[in-house]
Structure formats: C-alpha cells, structure tokens
Design a protein that fits this description.
The structure holds 2 protein chains of 2 kinds.
Chain A (H helix, E strand, L loop, with lengths): L7 H7 L14 H11 L11 E6 L2 H21 L7 H9 L5 E8 L8 H21 L3 E2 L9 H8 L5 E10 L13 H4 E3 L24 H5 L4
Antiparallel strand pairs in A: 1-2, 2-4, 3-4
Chain B lengths: L9 H7 L14 H12 L10 E6 L2 H19 L13 H9 L5 E7 L1 H7 L7 H7 L1 H13 L3 E2 L9 H8 L6 E9 L13 H4 E3 L9
Antiparallel strand pairs in B: 1-2, 2-4, 3-4
Classes of the chains: A alpha+beta, B alpha+beta.
Bound molecules: flavin mononucleotide (FMN) (3 copies).
One flavin mononucleotide (FMN) sits at the interface of chains A and B.
Chain lengths: 227, 215
Amino acid sequence: MPTGSMDLFDAIYTTRATRKLRHDLPVPDEDVYKILDAGIQAANGGNRQVWKFIVVRDPRIKRQLGDLYRELVNWVTSSNPNRKLDSGELYLGEHMAESPVIIVVCGISSGNEPPDEATAVGATMPAIENMLLAARALGYGGNISAVVRRRQDDLRRILGLGPNAYAATLLPIGVPQGSHGLKSRLPVEEVTYDDTWGNPTRLKRPASVWKPKLELLSEGDRKKGRG
Amino acid sequence: MAASRPEIGLFEAIYTARAIRKLRHDKPVSESDVRAIIEAGTQATNGANRQLWRFAVVRDPATKNRIGEWYRQAALRVLGPDDNPNPNHIANSGERYLQEHAGESPVIIFVVATPNYGQAVGEWKPVDAASAGYMCLPAVQNMLLAARGLGLGSNLTSAINMYEKEVKELLGIPDECKIVCMLPIGYPQGKHGPKTRKPVEEVTYSERWNQAPRF
Ligand SMILES: Cc1cc2nc3c(=O)[nH]c(=O)nc-3n(C[C@H](O)[C@H](O)[C@H](O)COP(=O)(O)O)c2cc1C
Ligand SMILES: Cc1cc2nc3c(=O)[nH]c(=O)nc-3n(C[C@H](O)[C@H](O)[C@H](O)COP(=O)(O)O)c2cc1C
Ligand SMILES: Cc1cc2nc3c(=O)[nH]c(=O)nc-3n(C[C@H](O)[C@H](O)[C@H](O)COP(=O)(O)O)c2cc1C
C-alpha cells in the first residue's frame, strides 16, 4: 500500500477533472502501478473483476488515440450547438496524444463477444473513480474521456482489442498544469430525500463537515473565498 | 476536517473498504455521518457535471422491512436456496447474511439516477436511464470509501433492482428514474480489511492488447 498518502476526504474533495496536463513531466511506471492497484480494489459485481487496462506510452499509439479523440470532440462540438465546450475540454481535444500516459480501461466478458456499452462502462466506473483519487493523492490529475467509446471499431484496431473486450474510456494522466481544487456541486440538501421521494431531508450541514485546508486550495479558490 | 473523525489516508481507505454485509443492528449511525457519506458521493466525477444523482435515506423500520423482504427474494434468486445453491455464484457467509438481514440495517441509502434532470439542463442530450445509472457509480465508490473512513461498513447492492418497480412505488420514485443500487450502512460486526484481487500484472497490458506490462 502506498504510504505518505493524503487524507481520504482531502482527496475526495479536491480531485477534479484535470484536462490540461504537463507534457514535460513524466509519470513513472511505479506510480502507474499504484494507480492501477488502487483501481482494482474497487467494488465490482460478484468480485468477477471483469476489467483490463492498457497502459499506452508509445507515441505512435498515443497519436492514433489523440486523432480519434479530436475527431470526437469536433463531432460533439458540431452536433451539440447548445453545449459550449470549456477551454479544458477543447484543450484535451487537441492534446490528448501528448499526455504522459493514457490508461485505456476496458470491460471484458467471459465469452467471445464484448460486453455491451452499459455493462462495460458500469463495471469499470468504481475502479475509475479509485484511479482518479489515487492519481490525485500522488500529485497527478486525469480525466475520464469516455466519448471515445463510440468509435469502438477504431479502438479495436488501434489497440488490437481481444474479441471479449470493450474499451470504456481513455484515462489520460499527468501532472496538472494548474492546480487541484474544489468542484461545483449541488449541496446534499438539494439532492437528498428522507424515506420517500420528494420528502426534504432532515440532514443538516454539520459543524464537523469537511473544510479544505488552506494549502489544498488553488489561487482561484482562495480568491473566491471558498472553504 | 471533521473534528470527531480520526484521519484516514486515501490508500488505507481504498485498500480496506471491503464489502461489509454483516452490520451491527444495535448501534445507530449518526445523521452527520450519513450526510458526510452523501456529500462524498456528490464530489465524484460524473457526466458533464449534470449531477443526475439523488439519494433517498431510509430509516423507517416498516419501509426497511419491505425492502429487506424484497432483497431476500432477489438474493435467493441470485444465490439459490441453501439446499440448491447456484453453482455459478457460490455465496459467502456475508452474502447469505445480507440476504436475511438487509431490512435490519440502521440506514439504507438508495442511489437514484434521474435522466430527465439532464434534459432540464439543456446542454447535452438527455441521457437514457442506463447511462444515467452508470454515471452515478463513481459517486457510489466515493460513498463506500467515505463510510470506511468514518468507521462504518457498507456494500454496493444492486440485486434489489429485481424489485425496482416495487421499490419505486414504495418510495414514490418517479418511473423514469433508475435505481442504481442500495447501500445498507452500519457499524461492521467484523473488521474492515484487505480484499482478494487478481494482481495488476494479470489485468494490465502494455501499449496493445495481450502485450505483457513492463512492471
Ligand atoms: C454493480 C454491483 C452490484 C452488486 N450487487 C450486490 C448485491 O446485490 N449483493 C451483494 O451482496 N453484493 C453486491 N455487490 C458487491 C460485490 O459482490 C463486491 O463489491 C465484490 O464481491 C467485491 O467485494 P470486496 O471488495 O469485499 O472484495 C455488487 C457490486 C457491484 C459493483
Ligand atoms: C461517463 C463519463 C464520460 C465522460 N466523458 C468525458 C469526455 O469524453 N471528455 C471529457 O472531457 N470529459 C468527460 N467526462 C468528465 C466529466 O465531464 C467531468 O467529470 C465532469 O464535468 C465533472 O468535473 P469536475 O469533477 O471537475 O467538476 C466524462 C465523465 C463521465 C462520468
Ligand atoms: C469534451 C467532452 C466532454 C464530454 N463529457 C461527457 C460527459 O461528461 N458525459 C458523457 O456521457 N458524455 C460526455 N461526452 C460525450 C457526449 O456527451 C456524448 O457522447 C455525445 O453528445 C453523443 O451523445 P450520445 O453518445 O448519447 O449519442 C463528452 C464529450 C466531449 C467531447
């Protein structure tokens, strides 16, 4: 088990989608291993562990994945006129290939056919969350880039996927260009009901609720007076 | 930082948050812990930050009883009865225990995906119920870790979905929503601890499928 790690709740509150990665700073194999080992600890149906991971560092393969991802970002931009992509989302569209490492997370079946989309993505999501948290604790950032799953045939060709595999997402990992930090979320009170649907929760924001330590905050978060 | 809570490192939580199915029925779970677990859930990555999740906290004994009975039927269908067990899913004692005692859990949190909420946001296309469901699973993993961090045990329990229609009716959950799972929560009868997993080397390839990893 990696030691000297950060506090659990600090990690949960300050892991955010990190799309702008430093291309000049490496992610050593040892850290990739720690991230994967955290991933496979996740809850999974019947402990069948129907997941496989491909660690991509080869620039040629990264370029092919990057080209594919860019096409999908462009396609999303043109097919969802109401949804303006933010600068991070657009940046990743251009720079996926330059990520120090891309972990491809796959769902597998016990047969000879790939699992369907919902099964493969669902089976790997808890592991992916653990991986993002572990990356954060080790000083890295990453982002689920799952739109790419729509081009399964291309992924199959680029990665030589086995017949029983479905590539659920790319997970680019690297040192963030910016900082880790807080996220914007609806408060618990707005998303929780007691006993029956629509019945407001009696849960109250307790005095002991998690508060960020100052050093965990980015410049921007500090300016906004958060925490 | 919660004053009343000992700090726990992220990795310790990740490695020791195993499925806890045998819960103490005599020791209550505080409201502030339930809230902390849900808030940890809401911090998870999720599709386009649409936050399609809703959480229903069930403490009412009569409601828990009905749910417990449905879970018993569901688990029996998966695991088979004691005298004719399912050869493809050999039940461990925890699974059998939960089969009988889910209704006695101090708290049960239902994680519910609300596909229509995405429509209201009007950014992305509305997601169907299945995708809304998997978009809530990172939140569930955070909740399992948070429970561990607070000394509580829990388990991702989705077999209850065999009775999804009945549960929705009982709790008044709208038709278009999808129940992701239920999380029975309480103090563990036993201990948190390590899990059985295939090692990383067996589930990882380098560069392309079937190429052995470097580590
Ligand atoms: C989608 C999903 C559904 C699950 N449903 C059930 C369930 O209905 N009943 C149950 O006892 N465990 C259920 N589990 C828990 C798994 O069996 C458990 O995560 C797995 O055995 C690993 O346990 P461990 O972390 O203690 O090794 C479910 C897990 C997942 C991911
Ligand atoms: C299933 C799924 C698919 C996603 N696909 C993409 C993607 O293709 N590209 C991308 O930039 N972000 C993707 N994301 C990341 C989300 O947009 C991101 O987690 C969300 O905006 C919340 O960010 P925050 O945690 O920093 O607040 C995906 C997330 C999920 C859960
Ligand atoms: C930058 C970016 C961010 C995205 N974020 C998400 C996301 O958070 N969740 C998600 O399901 N899909 C995400 N997508 C994918 C699109 O939502 C989705 O795949 C696309 O709109 C097509 O819709 P469909 O796959 O439902 O047909 C993202 C795509 C891009 C390019």
